[in-house]
Design goal:
The chain is built from 6 helices and 3 strands. It is an alpha+beta fold. The protein has one domain (about 5-125): Zincin-like (2-Layer Sandwich), CATH 3.30.2010. The relative contact order is 0.19.
């Protein structure tokens, strides 16, 4: 898949986030990179042989104050290479990208990894009904 096609896939996944959440996403840059850097892997706690599909870097909404001055945008990075290597089909790739975007947006809203994983399990159960 070309980088442009993957960018479009990420845009599609972002658009699938319900409007009530998208409206609250402020000062967030969503970017695509080919691969995570060694620094990004370390920041996410990924050990040797592990991989990273996405990364949220910023200050979660739940820990912000209305009295804060201007800050640089938070950043959600989606990594193309790991998605393509793990995907079993085009449909699986679409689902993985959608899940990764949701996952990183949940971190923006202040959910820690345990809560994000629990929310993902609930979302999957609803989606398969």
């Amino acid at each position: 898949m070309t980088p442009h096609e993957f960018d479009q896939l990420v845009e599609w996944a972002y658009a699938r986030i319900p409007a009530r959440f998208r409206k609250r996403l402020e000062n967030v840059a969503v970017v695509v990179e080919p691969e995570p850097s060694p620094r990004q892997l370390a920041e996410a706690g990924v050990g040797p042989g592990g991989t990273l599909l996405g990364l949220y870097q910023g200050r979660p909404l739940t820990s912000r104050s209305v009295f804060e001055s201007f800050t640089m945008p938070d950043r959600i990075t989606i990594f193309q290479g790991p998605h393509e290597r793990l995907a079993r089909s085009e449909a699986h790739l679409r689902q993985m990208v959608e899940d990764t975007v949701w996952h990183e947006v949940a971190h923006y809203f202040g959910m820690d990894e345990r809560r994000v994983r629990a929310a993902e399990r609930r979302r999957m159960r609803r989606g398969s009904s």
